[in-house]
Amino acid sequence: MTVEVGTRAPDFSLKGTDGESYTLAAALAHGPVLLVFFKTTCGTCDLAFPYINRLKESYPDDGWRLWAVAQDTPEDAGRYAAAYGMTYPVLPDADGYTVSKAYDPPATPTLFLIDRAGRIAQQSAGFHKAELNSLSAGLAERLGVKPVVIAAADDGNPDFKPG
User: What is the CATH number of domain 13-153?
Assistant: First the structure.
């Protein structure tokens, strides 16, 4: 069952495509963490990542973390990250899918905003502009900054696409 809003986020450590190790508990000491579960073969992910990248571009990165958890090999995840301009850690979860099993995302992409206390604050599955903007507002609130609309309704892309 998917990790629900209000529950404690399962802690984990994964090695990124950059060779560094990433541990959720350590990251939460610096602020909220936004996890994005994805697959390189997911067309909905292709649509979503330009918007997710806007989150990284819109908010100062000293008070929060954005991590993309790939349900793919490190090689495939690295190629995808380069193709989609991902400038944040990409964490392959292909060896047994332990993190994916713990969070049980219902679709790809699925985003989990984890507050500094380690609880799931918000969740979004698939591509949904209103939910992306809600995640942006939730992140801004936790950072004490003005929210940014990252998914304009009239930008030529659909408002919703299931994952």
Answer: 3.40.30.10
Tokens representing 113 are 């905003």
Q: In whole angstroms, what is the distance from residue 144 CA to residue 39 CA?
A: 32
Prediction pTM value: 0.97
Contact 161, 60 (CB under 8 A): no
* Structure tokens belonging to residue 128: 């949904």
**Identity of residue 114:** I
**How do residues 80-134 score in pLDDT, each as one tens digit?**
999 999 999 999 998 899 999 999 999 999 999 999 999 999 999 999 999 999 9
Between the two ends of the chain, the Cα-to-Cα distance in Å is 17
Q: Residue 31: which region, alpha, beta or left (left: phi > 0; alpha: psi -120 to 50)? A: left
